[in-house]
Amino acid sequence: MIAQLSAADLAGRLTPAEAADALAGVLRAGLDPEGCPQRCAVPVAAGELLLMPAAAGAYAGVKIAGVAPGNAALGLPRITGSYLLLDGPTLRPLALLDGAALTALRTPAVSALALRYLTPRDRPLTLVLFGAGPQAYGHLEALSAERELANVLVVARAPDRAERLAAHARALGLAARTGTPEDVSGADVVLCCTTARTPLFDGRLVRPGATVVAVGSHEPDARETDTALVRRSAVYVESRAAALREAGDLLIPEAEGAIGPGHIAGTLADLVAGRHPAPGREIAPRLFKSVGMAWEDLAVAVALFRTVGTAEAT
Fold this sequence. Notes:
alpha/beta, eight-stranded parallel sheet, six-stranded mixed sheet, 14 strands, globular
């Protein structure tokens, strides 16, 4: 009988930093995201079904996820689904994990890993956070664990939700308030955790040395950042191949003739390995564009499974 791990079972088993360590570990072990299987996306009446398989080392797995934009009006999660973890050599099922809870941990962990290499360590940081949903909360926790934050400014379409997240940040001991898109001009880090399909702010306002992380979309016609920011930034991605298939933040500027495929400065694996480090602060902003990849789900699912213990997993 395989382990059944609900969202409640997974809560608190890994910190975002530990999940980021798991991601870094598989990259250091030699996994090449460029060769990982593509995400399969199927449009359905309620939204989109996603199939994300991966295999690495002693494990394999597949996430079946649903993205249902209308769920918010019903008080239900926008992202649903399950993750089936398999033994690598035999493909024997080992565990079934709540897919939404896995995604809610994995995505901030990816961002936290990138920010380890792209943000300064010599001073407290000012964070501008776009969004007020689960990913925004997760990213706030992940970044506050990685870096000391001097200020947090929350920008969201719904002012009441923005204030709730700012109040949550204050409860964590952070100086926080709601803000506006223009606040990116004073930010050290800008986190974009939204469902927006058009740019959230004027990229010309972002100062050199600041880091922007955009995680909200994996569709070629959707983006959270504008062409002005992409053109002037050192761009990092999880995988060049995945980004050039799915990242509207890059594909739209490329279609406009503003950048070419060679505009990508490096990947997450490059950062972890010390290849293609971020440019000096005075030169350019840094943009990390994440689309979410199956190898990341597998790495974090394995780390979670290992916390369960042999007795509970059998």
